[in-house]
Write a structure and sequence with these properties.
Strand content: 15-25%
Oligomer: single chain
Shape: globular
Helix content: 25-40%
Number of strands: 5
CATH architecture: 3-Layer(aba) Sandwich
Radius of gyration: 15 Å
Length: about 120
């Protein structure tokens, strides 16, 4: 196969449906479906993904912990959050910047515009 390596986190029919849908495209390789952020973090210590999709969790609790766990393990890895009841997805990234004001200003200037 080839293309972007996608890891999916979620233990639902929704997560399995996303995996099946993505697997039908030639530009994406679904490398696994894991039930929790902790499992994903452990997997990411020895394997490589280009993006992680977190599915169908409550963003106020479970999903926030899941995303945090992943970003602590792989700070440069984009995480996409999606929910069956939402009409859009969130792309969450983490970038380390130096402690100087100029670096912080550069990071702020590079942010995409708000929707």
């Amino acid at each position: 196969m080839g293309g972007r390596r996608v890891l999916i986190v979620g233990s639902s029919v929704f997560a399995e449906g996303i995996a099946q849908s993505l697997s039908e495209g030639a530009q994406v390789e679904v490398v696994g479906i894991l039930p929790t952020g902790e499992a994903a973090s452990t997997w990411l210590r020895s394997e490589v993904a280009d993006v992680v999709i977190v599915t169908g969790m409550n963003m106020n609790g479970d999903a926030s912990q899941c995303v945090s766990s992943i970003l602590l393990t792989q700070p440069g890895l984009p995480v996409i959050y999606t929910d069956l009841n939402a009409d859009r997805v969130q792309v969450i990234t983490s970038e380390c910047v130096r402690a100087s004001g100029a670096d912080l200003l550069a990071a702020i200037a590079a942010l995409p515009g708000r929707l």
